[in-house]
């Protein structure tokens, strides 16, 4: 407000309109509202985030734009709950967006898909007959057709969604669980539980150590939830059609 | 197999998480953009004409995932604070562990200016 006062040419009016406290400095450690760079035209502009009136940038100094409003609000909320120190290890969505925007390892789609499919060979959770089960330590032979089907299915996702998928696969160590999560068949808690079956069994047998087991459990849940949410938000489009009630 | 529960429960959980997050900062949680967006989204998508609406289930799933994210981040930070956040002991505390006490030197140590 005091800035506006300085623009007034009339000196007397400036003195009269000066706020009693003098110029107020906004000291807010947190972030604020995401501002829409272009309203209602998401694919063209994307949504940006303002931290205390400055635009958020990625680690490689690119402008931070996301295609989905919900994602932008979630990232802004992440920044908002930082207080004195910024704990980057809690800001999973921000990290995922930064990775997608920067692509620091310069990977293209095929490399991402191949990295994700590698986990199929060592999947310890089996759902269907087409993968088969194995009792030896080497793991089953995945038929090539299954692999091709999987690769083509993954190729249908966008680059951003693939980053998210690869992230979730590397957290859960299982391709099957990730697909179940993305297809809405499993909740995050269920997927994490299935991924940690061995550990859960041992915990039930020998007891739970809070500072190790619970710590890892919550961290795994947080990362998996962030990855799943990221994939869903990056591969959706929303339309609302209002229907009038017939009376 | 996805046992999501009712949307009202998910919304309540989300609002509770927002409340916890904004309790530390001064502002009320109702001012946040997240609150406004969530309430608007839940209200808008409450009613559809279809009996079995996959899109509604999808949105509820996303909300439940976000709830899981907020909850687990909060618990993770709390666990970290409690068990791994202490840092190193100070010199006085370390001396006290073995029963020694640092001497009082009102003039400062010899090599300090």
From TrEMBL, chain A:
Its main location: mitochondrion. This is ATP synthase mitochondrial F1 complex assembly factor 2. PANTHER family: ATP SYNTHASE MITOCHONDRIAL F1 COMPLEX ASSEMBLY FACTOR 2, ATP SYNTHASE MITOCHONDRIAL F1 COMPLEX ASSEMBLY FACTOR 2/ATP12 PROTEIN, MITOCHONDRIAL PRECURSOR. It comes from the Eukaryota. It is found in: Mitochondrion. One of its GO terms (biological process) is mitochondrial proton-transporting ATP synthase complex assembly. SUPFAM superfamilies: ATP12-like (SSF160909). InterPro entries: ATP12_ATP_synth-F1-assembly (IPR011419), ATP12_ATP_synth-F1-assembly_N (IPR042272), ATP12_ortho_dom_sf (IPR023335). Belongs to the ATP12 family. Keywords: Chaperone, Mitochondrion, Transit peptide. Pfam families: ATP12. GO terms for cellular component: mitochondrion.
From TrEMBL, chain B:
One of its GO terms (cellular component) is mitochondrion. It comes from the Eukaryota. Residues 90-113 are annotated as: Disordered. InterPro entries: FMC1_homologue. Plays a role in the assembly/stability of the mitochondrial membrane ATP synthase (F(1)F(0) ATP synthase or Complex V). Belongs to the FMC1 family. This is Protein FMC1 homolog. It comes from Phyllostomus discolor. The gene is FMC1.
